[in-house]
Amino acid sequence: MTTVSAVEALGDPASPEALESLFARFSARFGDRFSRSEALREQHANTLTWLKVQAPDAVLFAETTEEVSEAVAACAAARVPVIPFGAGSSLEGHLNAPFGGLSLDLSRMNAILAVHENDLDCAVQAGVTRKQLNEHLRDTGLFFPVDPGADASLGGMAATRASGTNAVRYGTMRDAVLGLTAVLADGRIVTTGGRARKSSAGYDLTRLLVGSEGTLGVITELTLKLFGIPETILAGVSTFQTLEGACNATIAALQMGLPLARIELLDEVQVRGCNAYSKLSLPEQPTLFLEFHGSEAGAREQVEIFSEIAQGEGGGALEWAARPEDRSKLWQARHDAYWAAKNLRPGTDLIATDVCVPISALAACVTETKQDIERLDLIAPIVGHVGDGNFHVMPLIDMSSAHEMERARQFLDRLIERALRYEGTCTGEHGVGQGKIRYLVAEHGEGVDVMVAIKKALDPLNILNPGKIFAADL
Amino acid sequence: MTTVSAVEALGDPASPEALESLFARFSARFGDRFSRSEALREQHANTLTWLKVQAPDAVLFAETTEEVSEAVAACAAARVPVIPFGAGSSLEGHLNAPFGGLSLDLSRMNAILAVHENDLDCAVQAGVTRKQLNEHLRDTGLFFPVDPGADASLGGMAATRASGTNAVRYGTMRDAVLGLTAVLADGRIVTTGGRARKSSAGYDLTRLLVGSEGTLGVITELTLKLFGIPETILAGVSTFQTLEGACNATIAALQMGLPLARIELLDEVQVRGCNAYSKLSLPEQPTLFLEFHGSEAGAREQVEIFSEIAQGEGGGALEWAARPEDRSKLWQARHDAYWAAKNLRPGTDLIATDVCVPISALAACVTETKQDIERLDLIAPIVGHVGDGNFHVMPLIDMSSAHEMERARQFLDRLIERALRYEGTCTGEHGVGQGKIRYLVAEHGEGVDVMVAIKKALDPLNILNPGKIFAADL
């Protein structure tokens, strides 16, 4: 379970002199957009992760693809690691600097370069956040659907292959990115994919870079698919007697091809957290938050069909979020699930983890996970993008207690072992980062060697985000 | 436009002795599943391509992944190229053997290994064809949507990132493949992806192998997404005054999010061909073949909305294919477009090519292409998966005439130049093979170097399908 495949750490790391000389040049070249201040360095590694902070040696705010290229080439020449940084909302230690190096902050690359309304696509710089893009699109009748909880940068979302509540209908970043511009480990700038909806012209470099977590290239621009805002959006809440009932209703709806836009499971612990944090008053039972998109008649028909299915599985009648503001409140509560969970045991740390299994295994996998939570006496709410078979568990841990940490580690190991036993994956949308390196071989076997061969071919010096996905030095 | 980036041809090709020794071993090991007969060798390179046939030295019918592994490892040791073969329906010379070698025929690996109805997925061997799979699924209420014209093998469809008429609604092979088993250039067997609907666990090797045209691995098994057969399927034909009208109606429908299942454009030349070949009696004008999937009310609503849009763009009323047999006839005619086109000028060869552009550029790109056809005095029907911006042109050429061949080459060069000018791709679904190598750098620039670096990392001896995608030796 814990076999580890490692790309060697930097074979020939920067000497202190080379580092000083490089940083002196960066300081002269970029002025106050380059900084070695401790506060800034700490902030660039201190994300939502529960892993220990490993600050970079310096931070550079890049403003153009050419600057990124220049910086990466200079870092490569000096053997200094480069850690791309977007909004800082990643969960698995992606932004840590275990070998030191430069945090390359792309948040100022936040221009929306083009919106092609007729083609339902747009071009953005990597630092644009998902909310910023949707704000910009507001008057076009279009929207960008991928919505991780945080207001992440689109570059970071691509790098971690993020998804969110809409994936069951609109796909993940794997599907959303039509093409991208990236800076490779030697500073070369490549453009992949394009604006055509499909292509068979060569290897799918776009999909290779999406999910590569900054280890193959620094994504600086993206071409993204957009969707028309549906004529009618209906949202509501359905409460179930059991987790199985909620999962089975989900399976039945998917099987009949009901085009659910969102179907989110909250266990009774998470509902309790949301009630307190987001001022809801839901029954503390397994609950589905749902959204239906379509024409007016179409959306209403979906609701009727789903209501019938839910009732057959012990679900209560759908509680409507009729007004747009009620709907916003509902989804804000869902997006705030992390903070609501944290609130259930103040003063502790929250370990946000996720797995994804075939939908038919979801009820069993969630149920066994809850039994393990009880057995270990943890507080660990569960929320899930159940239309994808993806769920999150968030153990609340006192990290100063070795005993609690040990229980948490056991829990995580078993959670992933269970997901893999059900032919699932160790992470549906958070990525590997540092936190899941130890599970990758169990999931992909020799496939990891193929990944490492690609990493070595494209980044032979292991400059780009070293110690993520592959390296063992946790 | 014609810059070429080449992976070197086999540096150290098999000596005649090594080849004889290998083939003697294969003959002893595989009996009559291994053959050097001229007829069989010719047949394994003589596909629907217009490129000249380059037969392999021998053919092996493999029956298991382990046999594929054994054969590839032995070929690698002897420096003998391996050309994977499925149904032989590829269009760009993928199955040619410019450096000789072994055609590895997977058509006997045609077992359907599992159908998971609850998860809407299945596992198949690579030699299963799309029609075989759908026949097998008949009683499950599920179907597999990707449908290139030919009854291709699913392994070959994955290898060329194929699509077809349903892609606008159900996606291409890029989307349909959840995971796969492949034999690498050294004979190692890897399994990529999995059965979870999404994953962020490492590089997307599935998507890297899909579309790699047998140059990175021999795909032997696939896990594929399935879909529920919709409650209601409505199909019909809409005739337009102009190509622009048909394209504009398509754009408008997509923009409002109408979930079109199929929207296929035929120009008046192709309609003439289909009328003759498939015994239809359609007006010889630009025509859309359409299909709508949904609940009964939902599908009817889509039809009404589309009819209104079409009328606004000069389209006639929708002619219904009301009975299932009428619908089958319509789509069979569409799938037979290749043969119908060929029939327009008997005795000539048909060059089947495809490009794909952003949908907003479709009308202009098709119109300019038709002007070029007229200028060059070619007969070249056009059919298109216009919901994706993808269209096919099929010049009918007397290949014994140097003059005609020269005009055809000019036409193809300009077609692709035009598609790239509109930010499109040199191939939407046929692949690069040998026929489009010369356009790849114009489309992807330095990206081609990245592809070559990956190819060299995973197949350093250039054993797997050499001379496809990259090599220059046409």
From TrEMBL, chains A, B:
EC number of this enzyme: 1.1.2.4
GO molecular function: D-lactate dehydrogenase (cytochrome) activity; D-lactate dehydrogenase (NAD+) activity; FAD binding
Protein name: D-lactate dehydrogenase (cytochrome)
Broadest EC class assigned to this enzyme: oxidoreductase
Domain FAD-binding PCMH-type: 52-229
Keywords, sorted A to Z: FAD, Flavoprotein, Oxidoreductase, Transit peptide
A GO biological-process term: lactate catabolic process
Matching SUPFAM superfamilies: FAD-binding/transporter-associated domain-like, FAD-linked oxidases, C-terminal domain
Required cofactor(s): FAD
Family under the similarity heading: Belongs to the FAD-binding oxidoreductase/transferase type 4 family.
